[in-house]
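Limitations

Structures in this collection are predictions, not experimental determinations, and the ligand pose is part of the prediction. Treat each record accordingly. The example that follows, with iron/sulfur cluster as the small molecule, is included so readers can see exactly what is and is not provided: the inputs are given verbatim, and the output is the predicted complex.
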Amino acid sequence: MIEGSNREGEAPPRLIRGERGWWLLGPGGIARLGDGHLTPARTLRPDVERGLREQGLFTVRPSRSYSLTVLTATACNLGCAYCFQNLDQDGGGTKPPRIASVRLTPGVIAEILTFVGRRQAESGLDGLVLTIFGGEPLMNPRGCRELLDRAARYGLRRAIDLGFAVPRPRVRRPCKACSYRDGRYGAVVNPDGALYSSWTTAGRPEWRVGTARDGYLPRERTDDRWFTCEDTYGRADDTRAAAGFRDRVDAAHLDHLSATGRLRA
Ligand code: SF4
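Predicted complex:
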């Protein structure tokens, strides 16, 4: 199945209060609404929802890219207490015990990109979004450069060619690297070629879910090893407060874009 088909449920629309009326953020676009478009319970009136649906606002746009996170070096010259590399606290110093220090090599780069090519073919994707991660990834500059050079053949387009832009507020989408149990749309790879469900468990052999060379372990062996970034960093106790804060920030952002003529909605 290609991303975008039958996946509306994964990107529920957001309705947030703006300076003048409401912003409706759907997976297929943004619309500005007035109070008259809503029911007294502040949900979309059925005819309004139908119209927006016909305009494609609720349609998940297919992504053509595979999301790959590669750790190029599990080492760092700092010792932050919150680092995912720490296996334990060190009692107040700056050298906590850490996951094994490994550097990405040309042989592993070849294995990773062969794996990516297979996954792209299976999922019908022809682009690549690459996140270089660590430790401190630039402790292995040669590995970073070689990975970037060779990934160009797998649909990686450089940010320098595409330009940079601040992303607009949008619907919440699942993380492509860790939210799909079979790694269909993305993967996280350690410098030794081991696959992990997300960067939060990377480098801990007991959490390994496969290797770039051999692919994922059978589902029954990864069932209790599949953690997402949200499992680790999501905080159930502040979900409402966090959502409210995010809505206020996004509404202010949209109001500003609209007021300065940079948003057509
Ligand atoms: S990798 Fe990042 S979080 Fe970890 S010690 Fe280095 S700077 Fe700190």
